[in-house]
Amino acid sequence: MLSQVPRSRMYVAAAVVAVVLVSVAVALIVRDPSAPASSEPDSTVAAEPTPTTTPSEEEPARAPDSASAEPGKPTDGNRALGLKAEATTAPGVTARLARIDSVQATASLPGEIGGPALAITVKVKNQTGKKLDLALGVVNAYYGPERTPAVSVASDGEVPFPASVADGESAKGVYVFQIPEEARPVRVELDLGNGADVVVFKGRPQR
Fold first, then answer.
1. Lower CB count within 10 Å: N or C terminus of the chain?
2. Quick check: helix, strand or coil at residue 40?
3. What is the secondary structure of 111-166 as a DSSP string?
4. d(CA 201, CA 140)
């Protein structure tokens, strides 16, 4: 006949078995891949680095464009000469305003304005040793303190430069601009093209 086991030992053995079972259950739950994943977003994802720009890659600041700021206004990059001065536009090429006559222009083309005007005769002398191309020559006029662009009256007495001028010869062009009688001063810009300097004449013409 088996001896009777004390009750105290049975209680201890039961407690140990219970602890073991609980530990095994916890381990299975933790290692179970089917357990639901956390619904909270992962807050440890690293942000993409912000690209940096080295000083050499920075775009240089653009200088203000005076032409776009004041359309139709002449630039101040050229020093103005007197109306009676003779200017050198390129090596061997000189230009001057041979005459400035007050006229009464008659408009006949769209956009032209009749009335008091100035007929400006520009004389160009060629001493370059070769033929000088004048086909791209341009004359513009402005008047008053605000340098208002003068309207060309090409249909009334205007005679543009010839296409070219031979070495040792001079050529003339007559350009008519509608300018009020009270307008002072007058500014005349001459650009012969082909890389020649733009010449500026400025003053108060005698009417």
1. N
2. coil
3. T---EEEEEEEEEEEE-SSS-EE-TT-EEEEEETTTTEEPEE-TTTT-BPPPSEE-
4. 11
pLDDT at 101: 93
The string of pLDDT tens digits covering residues 56-93 is 344 344 333 333 333 344 444 567 899 999 999 999 99
| Burial of residue 175 (number of CB atoms within 10 Å: 0-12, 13-18, 19+) | buried
| Contact of 188 with 138, CB cutoff 8 Å | no
Q: Residue type at 76? A: D
Q: How far apart are CA 156 and CA 104, in angstroms?
A: 9
Hey, what amino acid is at 49? P
pLDDT (tens digit per residue) in 112-158: 777 899 999 999 999 999 999 999 999 999 999 899 999 999 888 89
